[in-house]
Amino acid sequence: MIDVSNLKKSFDTIDALKGISFNIPQGECYGLLGPNGAGKTTTISIMSTLIEPNEGEVSIAGYDLKKNPLECKKNIGVVTQEIALYNELSAYDNLLFWGGLYHIPKPELTARIDEIVNLLGLADRKNDKVKTYSGGMKRRINIASALLHRPKVLFMDEPTVGIDPQSRNLIFEVIEKLHNEGMTIVYTTHYMEEAERLCDRIGIIDNGEIIAQGTLDELKTSGSMKETVVISFTNLTDERFTKIANDWKDLQRFDDIIHFYSMNIQNDLSKMILKCNKVGLDIINIDIRKINLETIFLSLTGKQLRDK
Amino acid sequence: MIKLVKKDLKLFFGNKQDMLLTFALPIIFITLFSFVFGKMGNTDEDNLVGIVHVVAGTSVMMLLFSLAGIGESLLEEKQEGVLKKLLCSPLRSNHILYGKMVFANIISIAQLSIMFVYSWLVFGLDIMHHLPSLVLMIFVTAYACSSFGIFLASFAKSRKQVQALSTTIIMVMSGIGGSMIPIFIMPEIMQKIAVFSVNYWGIQGFYDIFWRLLPLTDITFLSRVVVLIGTGTLLNFIALLMFKKNILKIV
Known about the structure:
The complex is a heterodimer of chains A (308) and B (251). Chain A has 308 residues and is an alpha/beta fold. Chain A has helices at residues 40-47, 69-75, 91-100, 106-119, 135-144, 165-180, 192-198, 216-222, 238-247, 265-278, 293-301; strands spanning 2-11, 14-24, 29-33, 55-60, 63-64, 76-79, 153-157, 184-189, 201-206, 209-214, 227-233, 251-254, 257-262, 283-289. Chain B has 251 residues and is mainly alpha-helical. The model of chain B has no long low-confidence stretch (mean pLDDT 83). At the A-B interface, helix 1, helix 2 and helix 3 of A face helix 1 and helix 4 of B.
């Protein structure tokens, strides 16, 4: 459904994209994960025809973006980072306007609006001016306005920034429903839990390059990623730590805590506990830190996805 | 494009503040100034000149302020991300600007028409005897002023910049163009400079109709029509180029 090949884009002296490539088959939800300034929005902006690349090819729903931008536009829906609505108009009038740009006949458009405001839990408020809505409600209408023409591809650029948990869950449910119905979705975020929940495949982007991509399981196994077992003790001494370290090479001590690193935690956990008991250590807590996107990102880039 | 115009009209008529500034405020100014300048002359003809000056001068100046506001809305749409979303739709980018131009023209024509109808009803300005000329002059003045409003917006990078730029330029143009003080009592050098203002050509056109009583076919009157159309077209053309260069730069 989407083919991106060797996409490059520079702004003055900054290389925002350094030749990224990826393919997204129909019906897939593809997550673009990266910190601010990594190139996510530039990628989405090019695919949604807002800016032209310096080099590279993009094809959407079989149409070449350079040769046939209008057909590409008809096949995409774009949920921008900004809440792009007219605050002085009602939600209904906003949707009527945005849907009208795609030449949907009015009776059909009004039926679709009713359907979508029901789905997003805003049927009771559809005639109220958008300026009276909460941030989360505005975000939901912002998403609705991109769906009225039933696009084949939906680009969502950080659609849950700054919203309440209730709206966030509703948005997730809508995305999951669209995904189940076969819509192709490109979802950019710097929230790992969103990418883990929603996306079939994830592309990790940093400094304008895709540094890894695949399913979460593929990403976990692609590098030499290790899970961490964090064990706290009441009686950890230097002597006891040395004895443990002689037998288990991959570990680190932090005061009364030892971090054990393992490629196969299921096999190794019991061995770790036995060793600790053998040297007379009293365990007060065991915490298993599994591999997730956060650890993958950290291992690939050496930095946190979000500033802490 | 029609959908954009309809949306802008809905937004405009749904906003009491915009309506007040566009229609009520000019009427208040015209009423106040007409009571002062419309009774200062020694003869009825002098008083008529006073009223024509107030109605024409104030209408054109207030029109320019209203249109600067419409230009600002273009920058507001850019700042709020609406323009980005419009550009992702199958709409042609030029149509976004054309839509604003059409909307600005509709509001301008409505504003000028209301001012002259009000002057007819309250001050007895004889618009009915000069209706074809008046309609023509309202249309071409509205066209030139609308183009000016969009032209200003197309140069600016932000809404605040348009506000600052438009207030200064409109005050200067209104000052030299005869919106505040009639041109014929200004020094000769000022009368020469006045031709560089949109206000001058509009106000002179209205003088031609109500004071000089020139017919529609008079060459002087028609020359003002041509200048206003030419100015509007030139400003629109530059605005279109600047729109592509400045406003469409989204990322």
